[in-house]
Amino acid sequence: MSARIRREQGGDTAMSSRGAQCDCEELYRQLLDAMMNADRARAAEIIDSALSGGIPPARVITDILDPAIVRLGAMWEGESISLAQNFIASKIAEDALLRCLPERKEPHGPKGVAVIGNIEDDFHSLGRRTVGLFLGTAGWQVVDLGNDVPAEQFLEKALEVKASVIGVSAMMQTTALNIKKLRDLIDREGQKDRIKLAVGGAVFNWRPELVAEVGGDGTTRNAVGADHLFTRLQKLALASGHVS
């Protein structure tokens, strides 16, 4: 193959990539608009159009849906949308996510047990539910404790169901700091090696240093990486010799 042809093909690939990026940016704006206007049918059309247009499901999530969810959270934190708007938009986002998930494959047994929930005083549930959907699809047994979960409840449930990973979600810095209560409790009860702490939420994308500040053992930018993160943390717990 001549160098000229390789350059031309490389150029075509680069232009194709830029074009796909532009498409994702435009689709993200359209999806956010549909979410804010409570247009569930339009949101479904946008996601289906992206998928049928050849954009891989993982990229639809990371480049179209996830930015819309993050923007929605920022608007909620800034009090520029009402509780009703946030609730409806979150339901539409969840519907859109389900269109991107692969069919669940039943494993021979669960990968493990994952306890998840929003930390005390945090009620922004969309990110947590998204993580739960991804973990369930990947073969995890997910125990979802819901919103506004105190540290004691997280640890009690993890010990009860023999989970080696707790996943805690927080949207804002003020609520994320409450995760330190759970970190301190896990350490104080001598469970640091046995139970690992995964943290997530938009604030950790904006302030990555907050992961260490609240005592998290790891994080992922979005739900797509949840299975990898929980699997890695579970292996660390197993390697400690404190998990049967």
Structure summarized in a few sentences:
The chain is α/β, with parallel strands linked by helices and 244 residues long.
**Main sheet specs:** 5 strands, parallel
- For the CA atoms, what is the radius of gyration? 20 Å
Q: Helical element count? A: 11
CA(first)-CA(last) distance: 57 Å
Question: Structural class of the secondary elements?
Answer: alpha/beta
Helical fraction: 55-70%
Order of helices and strands: HHHHEHEHEHHEHHEH
Task: Calculate the mean pLDDT score and round it.
Answer: 85
* Oligomeric form: single chain
As residue ranges, the low-confidence spans are: 1-19
Describe the structure.
Helices cover 61% and strands 9% of the residues. The protein is an alpha/beta fold and 244 residues long. A five-stranded parallel sheet has the order 2-1-3-4-5, with helices on both faces. Strand 1, helix 5 (126-138) and strand 2 (141-144) form a beta-alpha-beta unit. Helix 1 packs antiparallel against helix 2 (40-52), helix 3 runs antiparallel to helix 4 (83-100) and helix 4 (83-100) packs parallel to helix 5 (126-138). 39% of the residues are buried.
Labels describing this entry:
single chain; alpha/beta; 5-stranded parallel beta sheet; 11 helices; disordered N terminus
